[in-house]
Specification:
The longest helix has 17 residues, at 12-28. The radius of gyration is 19 Å and the shape is elongated. The protein folds into two domains: 3-8 and 98-160, Alpha-Beta Plaits; 12-95, 2-Layer Sandwich (Alpha-Beta Plaits). It has four helices and nine strands. By secondary structure, it is an alpha+beta fold. Keywords: Nucleotide-binding. It comes from Photobacterium profundum (strain SS9). Belongs to the YajQ family.
């Protein structure tokens, strides 16, 4: 029986490249001239520090743009609380890796509510979808890909015929 897995993974090599491009852009931007600002990547977390809240927002926007250029979905990015220490503002940006159980249940429920002739089952941090026909699997892929309510980007992996 044909099957595929629904996963949610972020390519951290591309994230590192986007952070490096953002740091390069930070050095050339006029509005960041003579300003203590930095953007670093360390163990799946991007740390952003600046002198003001507005500049922090600008740096996050630069990062989002560079992530989009590197084809990393911005929905996988979650910005943590902004912290002010002395005259510096800082925030951490984390990336969703894997499908949480609540989201996996929503995916399975969405597929079952569509009344497609497929079976969806949760297997750890991925959802396996099986069917008798390849066309049914492709319909399930389109359904999950176009569903905005799930709030997380998905990739389709391990397609077997």
């Amino acid at each position: 029986m044909p099957s595929f897995d629904i996963v949610s993974e972020v390519d951290f090599v591309e994230v590192r490249n986007a952070v490096d491009n953002s740091a390069r852009e930070l050095k050339t931007r006029f509005d960041f001239k003579n300003v203590e600002a930095s953007i670093t990547f360390d163990k799946e977390i991007v740390k952003i520090t600046t002198e003001s809240d507005f500049q922090l927002t600008q740096l996050v926007s630069i990062l989002r743009g560079n992530l989009a250029k590197r084809e990393v979905d911005a929905q996988s990015m979650t910005q943590k609380d902004t912290v002010r220490t002395g005259k510096a503002w800082a925030c951490n940006v984390e990336f969703k890796q894997g499908i949480e159980s609540d989201t996996a249940k929503k995916v399975v429920k969405t597929i079952k509510d569509a009344k497609l002739k497929v079976q969806a089952s949760i297997q750890g941090e991925k959802v396996r979808v099986t069917a008798k026909k390849r066309d049914d699997l492709q319909a399930a892929m389109a359904l999950v890909r176009n569903n905005e309510e799930l709030g997380q980007p998905f990739q389709f992996d391990n397609f077997r015929d």
